[in-house]
Amino acid sequence: MPVSELERQIREEITRDGPMPFDRFMELALYHPSLGYYRRPRDPFGASGDYYTSSQLQPVFGRLIAQKIAEWEEQLGRPEGFTLVELGSGRGEAGREIRTRLPHARYIEVEKGAGRMPERFVGVVFSNEFFDALPVRVLRFDKAGPRERFVGIRQDRLAWVEGDPYAPLPWMPPGEPGQICEICLEALRWVERIAQSLERGFVLTIDYGYTERERQRFPQGSLMSYHQHTAHEDVLTSPGERDITAHVNFSALADHGRPLGLRPLPLESQARFLLSIGERDEFRSALHAPDEAEARRHRMLLKTLLFGMGETFRVLVQEK
Ligand SMILES: C[S@@+](CC[C@H](N)C(=O)[O-])C[C@H]1O[C@@H](n2cnc3c(N)ncnc32)[C@H](O)[C@@H]1O
């Protein structure tokens, strides 16, 4: 069967260097400079793409987030140089809406290879579906300890192969023999970077994921690929052609941030979080529209955010 140019390069690397750690595979599949899923000219989002994010159900999502950020700004005492940092801003829809509503704030977008988090600032670090797009390592628990799952070649196809962990594991969730889980060390490094730079403020992380306790519901791990609005468990086929994600382990983010000064608030569903923002004026300001047709569209978007994606997505707020 003919393989894509990216798969050819991956196979070449495996043949040369041996089985490839999954985080390397995911990095290439999503972010190879010209052939990675997020680097190709084709837009992965929207009706003709593979999925929508909440930000793209704009403008209601961005407006509600902006309203929450404005509350936090008040709470922080309207500091001079109030700064918003958005991690993995993608097409920037949420950012546009937030910037319009908070024009006085310094807004910094951090995308792969573009934009940097300032060294010290007071404000908010916001991300939507950023952490689930970071490369993960995959482990399978064995009686003797964790085994690393690599990508190898078997019967002329990319396939999982197991071996000893290829690098130290500074953090390991507990697991029963046979269980598979992902660990995202890159996410922990981001928590460290945020804790170091954020002098005072809030970290708002929206994503789908689980707590450490809920992880037990995914004994075979949570890796998924998305192609044309369909989810697949197979993540090795057609690298570069489909999105690959892993559930975010919110307990890991919260536990890692705590000793660094990021105090986690209780994890909430996206629905609950957005509903609490709309409590004061029943979403009137977020749904405001110039005409009835637009207002109806906004109400539909709100319903999707609350009921379509509202329970799957979680919101972690950390305070410093
Ligand atoms: C699933 S998209 C979400 C985009 C946007 N936040 C939204 O809600 O539509 C994930 C984004 O994270 C970005 N990303 C991945 N790794 C990154 C990194 N190390 N630094 C900055 N951005 C990164 C990707 O390029 C991609 O745009």
CATH top level class name: Alpha Beta
Structural class: alpha+beta
Helix content: 25-40%
Bound molecules: S-adenosylmethionine
Q: On the 0-100 scale, what is the average pLDDT?
A: 91
Number of strands: 16
Second-tier CATH architecture = 3-Layer(aba) Sandwich
- Uncertain ranges: none
Characterize the structure shown.
It is built from nine helices and 16 strands. The chain has 320 residues and is of the alpha+beta class. The protein has a single domain, classed as Rossmann fold, CATH 3.40.50.12710. Strands 2, 3, 4, 9, 13, 14, 15 and 16 form an eight-stranded mixed β-sheet that branches. A hairpin with a 2-residue loop joins β10 and β11. It is globular and about 60 Å long. The N and C termini lie far apart (53 Å).
